[in-house]
Design brief:
The chain has helices spanning 8-28, 38-52, 119-136, 145-158, and strands spanning 56-57, 70-73, 76-78, 92-101, 104-113, 162-163, 169-171, 178-182, 199-202, 205-207, 213-215, 222-224, 230-232, 235-239, 244-246. It is an alpha+beta fold. The protein has one domain (8-246): Creatine Amidinohydrolase (Alpha-Beta Complex). The two termini are 33 Å apart. The structure holds 2-amino-4-trifluoromethylsulfanyl-butyric acid (MF3) and cobalt (II) ion (2 copies). One cobalt (II) ion binds next to strand 4 and strand 5.
Length: 254
């Protein structure tokens, strides 16, 4: 395993990339509405990233991924490919944005609600959001990866939801997916020890039903096996001596 420690100069580049990724989510919110297709959302984000931000959409052509963002609707767990699917009232969609600026990646996702949302979908999204933050709040030099996973898992399972095992958070920097893997389940005090200067993502996928997932024949789209809803939130985070700095906060939270 090769975990990179970012220098202060690299940390600043990660901060810039992280803010740009969050800015895209801030921008796209008003377009996520009944009647919009996920292809339209992809096009708007692509143009914003390339033309306004002077950045690169990392998903495009990443291991053959055909679009610039991921749009994961309802029972889609992650890596949904934008297409002709039109949003309808009641849909819940995760939009996952990764940009590259000056060689460094920023990676973040949020849930968006279309039209009138069910109480169940809102509750699932809330638990996933809280789980992400409980994981992030574990971060500091000297803590262990298992501390993150445990914090997320106990919150999710206490609320009778399940944590997806097959996909996880990751180190991030010059690479989109660097070491280590950041599991969203585990035992406190286990796994790699964290050090100041590491940058990684926390991005739990939380299922309303069983944790099992299935990969669709397109090779990307991951869905829940039981077709129940799934929710995900993601931040890119820098580990510091005393704790952490979230690099992908929206403009209003900075
Ligand atoms: N953004 C995703 C993550 O959080 C990865 C997407 S890979 C893609 O790690 F190719 F589907 F874009
Ligand atoms: Co990620
Ligand atoms: Co992501």
């Amino acid at each position: 395993m090769h975990v990179t420690i970012k220098t202060p100069e690299e940390q600043e580049k990660m901060r810039v990339a992280g803010h740009l990724a969050a800015d895209v989510l801030d921008m796209i919110g008003e377009y996520v509405k009944v009647g919009a297709s996920t292809d339209e959302l992809d096009t708007i984000c692509h143009r914003y990233i390339t033309e306004v931000q002077g950045a690169v959409p990392a998903p495009l052509n990443y291991r053959g991924f055909p679009k610039s963002i991921c749009t994961s609707i309802n029972h889609v767990v992650c890596h949904g490919i934008p297409g002709e699917r039109v949003l309808k009232s009641g849909d819940v969609v995760n939009i996952d944005i990764t940009v590259i600026k000056d060689g460094y990646h920023g990676d973040t996702s949020r849930m968006f609600f279309v039209g009138k949302t069910s109480v169940q979908a809102e509750r699932l999204s809330t638990i996933a959001y809280e789980g992400m933050w409980l994981g992030i709040e574990q971060l500091a030099a000297g803590k262990h990866l298992g501390d993150i996973g445990h914090a997320v898992q106990q919150h999710v399972e206490k609320n009778r939801y399940s944590v997806v095992r097959e996909y996880c958070g990751h180190g991030i920097g010059r690479g989109f997916h660097e070491d280590p893997q950041v599991l969203h389940y585990g035992q406190p005090g286990t796994g790699m020890e964290l050090r100041a200067g590491m940058t990684l993502t926390v991005e739990p996928m939380v299922n309303a039903g069983k944790r099992e997932v299935r990969l669709l024949p397109d090779g990307w789209t991951v869905v829940t096996k039981d077709h129940q809803l799934s929710a995900q939130w993601e931040h890119t985070v820098l580990i510091t001596e005393s704790g952490y700095e979230v690099l992908t906060l929206g403009a209003e939270q900075r």
